[in-house]
Amino acid sequence: MPKRKPLQTLEDIADAVDKIFIYTYEMSFQEFMNNDQAIDAVLRNFGVIGEAANRLPCNFKSENGSIEWRQIIGFRNHIIHEYFQIDYEKIWRIKEGKLIELAGATEQIIDKLYLQSGQ
Questions:
Q1: What share of the chain has pLDDT > 70, as a percent?
Q2: Distance separating the N- and C-terminal Cα atoms of the chain
Q3: Is pLDDT above 50 for 1?
Q4: Which of 4, 70, 81, 93 is catalytic?
Q5: Which of 25, 46, 81, 110 is a good FRET partner for 14, with 20 to 30 A between their CA atoms?
Q6: Is 81 a catalytic residue?
Q7: 32/38 Cα distance (integer angstroms)
Q8: Is 40 exposed, middle or buried (0-12, 13-18, 19+ CB in 10 A)?
Q9: Comparing 1-10, 57-66, 70-79, which segment has the lowest mean pLDDT?
Q10: Average pLDDT, the chain
């Protein structure tokens, strides 16, 4: 399987972020907790974000240090490996706070890479 370029991987992250926002649009935390499909979808997409971040080259992550790559990867590992101990309030807080920051930072890097590639 060919290695994906950072631009493709960042687009995967951006898509997963968008999906989380779509799946929880106008949803309260309580509504989220009562919706198994939304929980599953959000957890899966947080997993995609972390897995994609993990696959980015180390030098790329160093050059784009505005994103907390280690925390993102660690969060993914927690969701995947500690699935019986997931703190859903923490998931919600991250979705409500940090995810918008990630969306903005990711889009800036994507825009920069498109400009560099001449697309």
A1: 97
A2: 25
A3: no
A4: 81
A5: 81
A6: yes
A7: 6
A8: exposed
A9: 1-10
A10: 94
Instruction: Sketch the domain layout of the chain as residue ranges.
Output: 6-117
Q: Which of 85, 84, 82 is nearest to 74 (CA)?
A: 82
Structure tokens of 86? 């997931």
The tokens 């500690």 sit on which residue?
A: 82
Residues 6+ positions from 53 with CB-CB distance below 8 Å: 13, 61, 67, 69, 72, 73, 76
Whether the pTM exceeds 0.70: the reply is yes
Name the residue type at position 104: G
Q: Encode 57-71: b = buried (16+ Cβ within 10 Å), e = exposed.
A: eeeebeebeebbbee
Given the residues 4, 44, 70, 76, the one annotated as active site: 76
Residue 78 annotated in active site: no
